[in-house]
Specification:
Transmembrane segments: 6-25
Distance between the termini: 64 Å
Number of domains: 1
Shape: rod-shaped
Helix content: over 70%
Keywords: Membrane, Transmembrane, Transmembrane helix
Strand content: under 5%
Number of strands: 0
């Protein structure tokens, strides 16, 4: 009877550990997914211009976009 309780305890600890690891992996996947989506969204908003034909009328970036670019390490 005591060996059955020990086995059940080990199984329970293993299940809890597996659940904990699954939560951590899920959080990391969602963080990466969010950053990929944020980068895609930012690249859609700006048009790449030819550097040789670049004029002095370069538009100023929106401060919110600059903040997002800095958070992503792209500015």
């Amino acid at each position: 009877m005591s060996s059955l309780i020990a086995v059940l305890a080990i199984v329970l600890v293993g299940l809890l550990y597996g659940f904990f690891i699954a939560i951590i992996c899920g959080q990391r996947i969602s963080e990466r997914h969010y950053h990929v989506l944020a980068k895609k969204e930012l690249t859609k908003e700006y048009v790449v211009e030819d550097r040789e034909r670049l004029t002095k009328d370069v538009p100023v970036l929106d401060p919110n976009h600059v903040t997002e670019l800095r958070m992503l390490g792209l500015y």
